[in-house]
Amino acid sequence: MNQPKIDTSPKVSDEVRKTTCYMCACRCGINVHMKNGNVAYIEGNRDHPVNRGVLCAKGSAGIMQHTAPSRLRAPMKRVGPRGSGEFQEISWDEALELAVSWIKPLRETAPEKLAFFTGRDQSQSFTGMWAQAFGTPNYAAHGGFCSVNMATAGIYTMGGAFWEFGQPDWDHTKLFILFGVAEDHDSNPIKMGIGKIKARGARVIGVNPIRSGYNAVADDWYGITPGTDGLLILSLIHCLLKAGKIDLEYLARYTNAPVLVNSDPKSDEYGLFLRDDDGKELVVDRRTGKPTPVDADGVEPDLGGHFRRAGITHVPVLHLLAEKYLDPQYAPEAVADRCGIAATRIRALAAEIARVAFSETVTLNQPWTDFRGVTHETMTGRPVAFHSMRGISAHANGFQTARALHLLQILIGSVETPGGFRFKPPYPKPSTAHPKPHCKVTPGKPLDGPHLGYPQGPADLCLKDDGSPARIDKAFTWENPLSAHGLMHMVIANAHAGDPYRIDTLFLYMANMAWNSSMNTRAVIDMLTDKDDSGDYVIPRIIYSDAYSSEMVAYADLILPDTTYLERHDCISLLDRPICEADAAADAIRWPVVEPDRNVRGFQSVLIDLGARLGLPGFVNDDGSAKYTDYADYIVNHERRPGVGPLAGWRMGDKGVQHGRGNPNAAQIDAYISNGGFFVEHVPEKAAYFKPWNKDYQDWAVKFGLYDKPAPYLFQLYLEPLRRFQLAAEGHGPIQPPEHLRDQIIAKFDPLPTWYATDSDDAYPVHALTQRPMAMYHSWGSQNAWLRQLHGRNPLYLPTRLMREHGLSDGDWARVTSPHGEIIVPVAEMAALNDNTVWTWNAIGKRKGAWALEPDAPEATKGFLLNHLISELLPPRGDGLRWANSDPITGQAAWFDLKVKIEKAPPQEESKPAFAPIKSPVGTGPKELRRKS
């Protein structure tokens, strides 16, 4: 018989090179298969601690990211008007000298006139160091646009937050509850973890207006009304308190629940903690009944202890907490209508949490010693684990909502205990262990310290002598004091308005501000192209670095083309956002598994070069020569402090190679490559839990180089820094807020988590949300040939009620209007959706001409953004003030507060608004893309 001969085991590669994925922020290990010097395909690395061989659609499609026709090819300078896309290719020397000619005079005269902001670059410890050396106060990354509420609330409350700071105890948890989780973040570890706990019969509960992704596989789903998560959580706390289901021993030992609060209304320190002469917080000691420093040897804090002095009874935090949350306003019946969840279901959820936490405790036969010197024979924990992300964060009440969720898990004793939430090294770190923000500008000199940090009170704000904001984004001001990640989304609007001052050069990296990374796309484009009365651009110069021809490219004056992630060195560092899991400290590298075939350079190496050309401290030697040849040289030889550098593995000691602390090792990167691109050091078993108070963990962390000295601390149920801001607003202290902000600060800066409704207009009754699909990350994926087959267009999903109410069917079109704008888009029905909420996938819609897509690409015709309906400013209130559409505590963009109205529209050829095509320096891609080998 003439059967075809089929090679069932073809040779797919002749070499495997192991590195780290960059298709999302999971940073999984990958095996890059090479054939004839080209990338053949990508698979997961089974030895890698993050993904253990699992790889998602994004990771597998990395080959298409690497070969994308939209890749930029050479440095360019603009030769036509901004937005025209008309550029001239230039050499790297010309590009860098042009950049130096623009920004060197700024450093010598007014460093603040350079605003340097980066997107999701994963090298913020390095880019922040560069900006600090330059001397500008205007630096931050994308966190203020993404989830700073979650991170900041976690740091202030317990020394870490979800995802990059910690993870559920997948091996022991028996109840896993997700609040508003983004599907593109941490996807492989969460999918692996959910699979592990469901295989054991553990329950998964999803709290989210939208039932997709992780919520779709949950055993129960709570389709909550957007923006009311905090109210639901406080109602759960109300139920637990009434039932007596809180962990009193845990609260007494490890939190500030027993700390005495000044209860004298006439005191300038009313609401602050009582302290001894050394500044130590006081508790009532059970043994003596007297006020005693909280960390005194052998102290037994009394949760019910009161202290009477000068006719005033001072009470502990737990007293105030119980008084606040036992109020009937938090009863399930009182919150049910606003949350969109029946009171019986709220009570059922509280009962389930209590049952699992207190009837199914997990005990490990592992002795450990706490920071007070007490030895515990076992490790006992409450097996309820929570996880959350930007869904509860991107609201104007997001900080207090995230605080409430952290409070809930602390009250039941499920943080850093078996079965609960666990920190990933280098966390935990309390807010007091982090720097405070710095903003002192001295021409020709570095900034006086790190840009970002955690203020402890009004004295730590970034204000000039006259009280005006020192930063262009107004971070760390009375408008948003705890803006720990900066406010990237406010930079262009403030720079255009000259509020608080004018800048000269906007320097952006991987931040698509002319499209999906802005709060209001059309307005931002207008700001970038606006000219003053003299015919000059209001924002005089824009330098932009990206690997691809994004929408932002057309609005830059100088383009510094980046490489793809397979063509450069990167460092996923313990100084920044490492790849750790809870049981180990770990970091990783990327390295050029292939060399670029274009005239491009890794952005971090470009910053190294610019730093040397500018003569920045830390980038040049004493004789003025360049300190580092490129980013790889920096990764190996830079020391942030003695013995601690970007990478913790394979450093040099007196007896040779060692891990953790150590001297630079010229062969370090080679060692990482030989080990699969990563390093991991496991936490000792007796240090695995109770990390903030575990003596063995603290000693291990010091030896390894995570801390310089042991730093045990208490979880902050009551957040004293917020009370300090309230006191100032009440008229106490030398640093006072503006009059128009006093009421806001008093009402919303409650030191115990609170909930308040966000701005609303009855004319716009429907909530509108975006979320990213698992197959896309930020805007990168929708130019990827493989991933476009999964999400090439995006409808607006409506619940059944709204579809029927407006006479809509799948494929119909709807006009969606907000106070800021209007879109006309296709719709589709989704039953598993909060019945007053609409949503769509984010960042699918593209502008014609960008990303090397054809003009009729579905992303540019049927795809759309909700950004056109949002603004960085709220509608005018009639008081003449510019009120930001953000959280008043951190400044996080509140784009999930969007409210709209909907009406049926005639069928359209394209989604509206339809922007005119922009000219791309790389043109459009070929009809077919074939590998040559």
UniProtKB/TrEMBL annotation:
<dbReference type="Pfam" id="PF01568">
    <property type="entry name" value="Molydop_binding"/>
</dbReference>
<keyword id="KW-0411">Iron-sulfur</keyword>
<comment type="similarity">
    <text>Belongs to the prokaryotic molybdopterin-containing oxidoreductase family.</text>
</comment>
<dbReference type="InterPro" id="IPR006657">
    <property type="entry name" value="MoPterin_dinucl-bd_dom"/>
</dbReference>
<dbReference type="Pfam" id="PF00384">
    <property type="entry name" value="Molybdopterin"/>
</dbReference>
<keyword id="KW-0479">Metal-binding</keyword>
<dbReference type="Pfam" id="PF04879">
    <property type="entry name" value="Molybdop_Fe4S4"/>
</dbReference>
<feature type="region of interest" description="Disordered">
    <location>
        <begin position="906"/>
        <end position="933"/>
    </location>
</feature>
<feature type="domain" description="4Fe-4S Mo/W bis-MGD-type">
    <location>
        <begin position="14"/>
        <end position="70"/>
    </location>
</feature>
<keyword id="KW-0560">Oxidoreductase</keyword>
<dbReference type="InterPro" id="IPR006656">
    <property type="entry name" value="Mopterin_OxRdtase"/>
</dbReference>
<dbReference type="InterPro" id="IPR009010">
    <property type="entry name" value="Asp_de-COase-like_dom_sf"/>
</dbReference>
<dbReference type="InterPro" id="IPR006963">
    <property type="entry name" value="Mopterin_OxRdtase_4Fe-4S_dom"/>
</dbReference>
<protein>
    <submittedName>
        <fullName>Molybdopterin oxidoreductase family protein</fullName>
    </submittedName>
</protein>
<keyword id="KW-0004">4Fe-4S</keyword>
<keyword id="KW-0408">Iron</keyword>
